[in-house]
Amino acid sequence: SIGSVLLSALEVYKEMVLLYLEEARRQVNSHCAHLEPWQIISATVITTLGTVWLKGFLFQQESLASRIKKQFFRLIRKIPFVGMAIQSQLNKALDDMSVSLCTLKDGMSYTRKLPSKGLSHSQVLEKIKEYKTLSKSSFMPEKGCVSGAVYWGDETLTKLLVKVYGDFAWSNPLHPDIFPGVRKMEAEVVRMACTLFHGGPNSCGTVTSGGTESILMACKAYRDLAYERGVKYPEIIAPVSVHAAFDKAAHYFGMKLVHIPLDKKTMKVDVKAMKRAISKNTAMLVCSAPQFPHGILDPVEEVAKLAVRYNIPLHVDACLGGFLIVFMDKAGYPIAPFDFRVKGVTSISADTHKYGYAPKGSSVILYSDKKYRHYQYFVAPDWQGGIYASPSVAGSRPGGIIAACWATMIYMGENGYVDATRKIISTARKIKTEIRKIKGVFVFGDPEVSVVAIGSDVFDIFRLSNALTSKGWNLNTLHLRHGPIYPRQIHGD
C-alpha cells in the first residue's frame, strides 16, 4: 500500500539522519577529548553569552545601519578641529534662526520675571495690542493668503467661540461629576464625528488636543493590542508620506516605523510593497486621506483588503482633510470610500480645528469598535491619591476648547460644512488646472482635496515661494529628498 511505501522511504531517511548524528557525536568527542570539564563548561558559557549579546546587538528597534551611522558621527565630532567646525556651523545656524524668529521692535525686550505688582485690566489689553503688532505682515485670515496655519470660519463664528470659551474657561472634563455639561458636549462631538465617518452603533472615540495626539493614541492602542497578541517588537507599516506624528509615536512607544515607498506617478502608497512589508510584528497599517505633502488620497480600499486578510488594524489619518472629505459627495465631488464603510478600517483621526473650523487644540480619534479604544486608556488603580484614569495623553483638559468645538459644529451644521467644502474644492481644482498650464512647474499626482503640491525640474521652486511671500502669500515649503522622484516642492491648502 501507499502507506507502507511511505514508511519504508522514511526509514531510509531516518537511518541517514542517525548516521550523521553519530558522526557528529564522534567528531565533537574527538575534538574535546583533550579538554578538561571546566574548559568545556567555560567555552559553553562564553559562547552562549556571546550569542545572546550578538542577537541583542543586531536585532534592535533601531536598525544596525542607523546605529552605526550615529556612532560614526559621534566619533567624528570628537576629533578636535572637526568638532569645533561643526559646532561653529551649528551656532551660526542657531543665530540665523534666532534672528529670523525674533521680531522684536526697537526698544522691546522679553519679560523675564513677574511684575512686582500685577497690571490692570486696561494695561494687559494694551500689552496684547503691542504683541499683536509683532507680525511681519498684517494678519487678515479672511484674505486666505496663509497656507496650513489658519482655518477660519467667519467673524460671527469667532465672536460666538469667544463667548462659549469664556463660559467654560474654568471647566475640566477630568471631573465629569463637576462639569457634566462638558462631558455631554465631548460625547456629542465624538458621536457627530462618528456619524460623519459612517461609524456603526459600536463606533466610539475621544476628543484630543490635535492631530498629533490623535495619532499617538491610535498607535498606543494598537501597540498594546499587539503586546496582548504576543508581539514583542510592534511595527507600524505606513507610507513614506504619512505625517511625522507617526515617527513621534514610534519614538515614544518603542515601536518601529516601516516606511513604504509611493508610486512614482500617482504619489499613492505602493500597496504591493506594503504587502511585502507585513510581518509577524506588524501592529497596524496606515493610510492618509489625504496626505500632507502632496494632498493625495491613499488607496484605502486596497490597503483595507490587506488588513482584513492578515487581521491587522488599519488607521486612516484624515487629520488634514477629514472635515472636507466627509462632505465632498454632497458638495458634488465624489471620491472613493475611505471611512468606516470600508471593511478593515478600524480607526480614523480627524482634526476639528482644521476644516472643522473649531479653535486650535481640538481633534478626534475615532474607532470602529469599543474594543480598540480600550487599549488607548491609562488607569493607575493603586495610586495613593485614588484611582487615576485618563482617556488620552493629558490628565486635565481645557473644557473651554471642547465647548467651543461643540459650538462650532452645531453652528456650522451640515449645510454650512457642505457649502464651505464646495467652495474650497472648486477653488483647489481651478488652481490645479491653471498651474498645469504653466511651463516649468508641475503638480504632484492628481490631488482631489484641498492641497495642491507643485514642483519644478527647471528652477529652484523655493524662488517661487519667496516671490509669493513678498506678495503676501504664505505657502508651506517642503524639504524632501533630492532626486527625480522627490523634487523640492511647495504646497498650499
Automatic annotation (TrEMBL):
Pfam families: Pyridoxal_deC
GO MF annotations, alphabetized: pyridoxal phosphate binding; sphinganine-1-phosphate aldolase activity
GO biological process: carboxylic acid metabolic process; sphingolipid catabolic process
Top-rank taxon, per record: Eukaryota
Membrane-protein topology: Single-pass membrane protein
Cofactor requirements of the protein: pyridoxal 5'-phosphate
Predominant place of localization: endoplasmic reticulum
Broad EC category: lyase
InterPro entries: GrpII_AminoAcid_Decarb, PyrdxlP-dep_de-COase, PyrdxlP-dep_Trfase, PyrdxlP-dep_Trfase_major, PyrdxlP-dep_Trfase_small
Subcellular location: Endoplasmic reticulum membrane
Gene Ontology CC annotation, any one: endoplasmic reticulum membrane
Residues the record lists as N6-(pyridoxal phosphate)lysine modifications: 354
The UniProt record lists the keyword tRNA-binding: no
Keywords from the named record: Endoplasmic reticulum, Lipid metabolism, Lyase, Membrane, Pyridoxal phosphate, Sphingolipid metabolism, Transmembrane, Transmembrane helix
EC number per UniProt: 4.1.2.27
Pathway: Lipid metabolism; sphingolipid metabolism; Sphingolipid metabolism
SUPFAM superfamilies hit by this protein: PLP-dependent transferases
Family: Belongs to the group II decarboxylase family. Sphingosine-1-phosphate lyase subfamily.
Protein name, as recorded: sphinganine-1-phosphate aldolase
Origin species: Anabas testudineus
Name of the gene: SGPL1
